[in-house]
């Protein structure tokens, strides 16, 4: 046994002995260092990262501005709680206001907690209108988190399995089907909100149609129903605009976010139009860690970078390259069914399961992901250069061409 497999074996043993095994089959690698858009494993082998820790590490690894801001904050003050005013939280809220729509922000610690906050806000808003107005519509194959509210909002049976009874008050409708939505809105007066992803990330990079979204928003506005857009995966520059809703010419009442918001520091948030915060008054919701000094120093350091014009220009330039290269690859590989996405949120749908491509690409030095069984997901750090994107694509191409021959 060589040194490398020995080191990894011991890590795998400790994982088995000391940790829950809820993550199933982890990939056979343990990253110990990152630099830009590269990761290094236990044996110092270098990888190109097309995954960014599930769309989290958006400014790459060792990003100077983020690292300095966090270092300064760790030395100075990490946490005091929401019993006190917090300048870093104010700054992060101010920046979110600048890059989205006029409104107010509530900070939490994760995507699923952002879903919970949005659900609680929508419920209290709805119940202020009528005693039975508490239903929230979500769409098939959505993903909104793993806590009870987020999990129930997630319209996927496999996520619910074994956890019943779920939270009452959710109604699932088919995604991208305006007829069924319009019908529901006509007959159901108990709906307080609609919650949706504009690109279903965990659902396989399924994109909401522009007409569908605009009509949903129109009907919601007409019926006093709140629009909640889950930007946990699509937000903070991932799709080539600061938020994905900005592609659609609509303005949601509430957006939820997390993942890339502080580039790797766990934080989430909801941002809501100015008429809404009064429905979560004093004492109605809160979190010990939510928006602490450290997390919010991270948020501000990330947002200051993403809002620069050249940051999103890079996302769109590299995105253009990926779509061109992947569509070329599709011509050569018959098991690629479709390439779709926006910005650096890209899915390659296969005609067969794709899980085996992940460890194969990994052994060649490329980190990718497979979601919804058949969709290879490409979502690198948003700071990725064209040069690194090309290098990674070469590896991916070789892997696809080899698989074609098997
Ligand atoms: N919403 C969406 C769209 C997501 O993709 C995710 C996670 O993948 C979540 C919510 C839950 O986020 P978290 O894992 O931070 O709780």
Global geometry: globular
What helical percentage do the residues reach? 40-55%
Compute the gyration radius: what is it? 21 Å
Strand order, largest beta sheet: 4-12-11-10-7-5-6
Classify the beta-strand content into a percent band.
15-25%
Structural class: alpha/beta
Distance from first to last alpha carbon: 29 Å
Q: Spans of 5+ residues with little confidence (pLDDT < 50)? A: none
Number of strands: 17
> Count of DSSP helices?
13
Bound molecules: pyridoxal-5'-phosphate
| Major beta-sheet overview | 7 strands, mixed
Mean pLDDT rating: 97
Order of helices and strands: HEEEHHHEHEHHEHEEEHEEEHHEEHEEEH
Could you provide a short overview of the structure?
By secondary structure, the protein is an alpha/beta fold. It has 13 helices and 17 strands.
Characterize the structure shown:
- The structure is a single chain.
- The protein is of the alpha/beta class and 406 residues long.
- The chain contains 13 helices and 17 strands.
- Helix 3 runs antiparallel to helix 10, helix 4 runs parallel beside helix 10 and helix 11 packs parallel to helix 13.
- The longest helix has 24 residues.
- The chain starts with a helix and ends with a helix.
- Bound molecules: pyridoxal-5'-phosphate.
- The site of pyridoxal-5'-phosphate has 15 residues, from helix 5.
- Pyridoxal-5'-phosphate binds next to helix 5.
